[in-house]
TrEMBL record:
Residues 4-78 form the Nitric oxide synthase-interacting protein zinc-finger domain. This is Nitric oxide synthase-interacting protein homolog. Signal peptide: none annotated. It is found in: Nucleus. Keywords: Coiled coil, Nucleus. GO terms for cellular component: nucleus. It holds the Pfam family zf-NOSIP. It comes from Dufourea novaeangliae (Sweat bee). GO terms for molecular function: ubiquitin protein ligase activity. It comes from the Eukaryota. Belongs to the NOSIP family. InterPro entries: NOSIP, Znf-NOSIP, Znf_RING/FYVE/PHD. The lineage of its organism: Eukaryota, Metazoa, Ecdysozoa, Arthropoda, Hexapoda.
Amino acid sequence: MTRHARNCTAGAVYTYHEKRKDAASSGYGTNTQRVGKDSVKNFDCCSLTLQPCRNPVITKDGYLFDKEAILEYYLTKKKEYVRKLKEYEKQKQQEEEQSHEKTANEELQKLQNFLKAEKNIVSRSKNKADELASSVSNMCNGKDKMLPSFWIPSKTPEAKDIILHKPDKTIYCPISGRPLRIKDLIPVKFTEVKDPDDKKSLIVKEARYMCPITHDILSNSVPCAVIRTTGDVVTMECVEKIIKRDWINPLDGIKLSTADIILLQRGGTGYAAVNEQLEGKHERPVLQA
């Protein structure tokens, strides 16, 4: 087998590099790219805005949100539910009206057939009911509401009716997908690193917060937890070695339980042990042979 360069097209072997290059330029297949450090959320950033939280709150599952962002999301979902409910009720009302109208038309048709069968004397003058019954117009007998509109996509003869289902009143967390309630949000309190020699702004600093008990610097590489009773963010090492020894909060002396320790979900560090998905995929049409 002869050796050839990467971009050689005269060889008998279709290399993996050539295949990936052709797939990228053709516009077909799935593109896969490893998530970079800039795409990883910091541990103290909101899961919606991806910015440092001003008023941080945390859910029971450990996802951090800015209070303003999560409230705006909650109200938006509430308005969306009200809108969908109105559309659903409107559809139900239209179905009831169509059912009543169909019943009335059937009763009218039965009456006309009965009068036509019982009529013995042939009269030249036709009444209005007979004219409507014998009319070939597409505007009688309720057909005026069934006319197609070729300039409206949803009313063309080929268009199918969209059946709406009753919307779900429950609002779910945008990250975990579990039911979200405002009263379940727990305020979070970060302890700032006090360094009199560092004059930088808080956002510019890399070491912004620390554990209030052990004074360890918090970062994405340090597993953290939130104490539900006080909202303080501590390291998991502090929880394992200090808090779990007596199950007492060293900050205020209150008795704690397992439910009072909420694991703070981190953005990741670029390693598979922290991130569940390190690759971003973009699906494109498949090249048909």
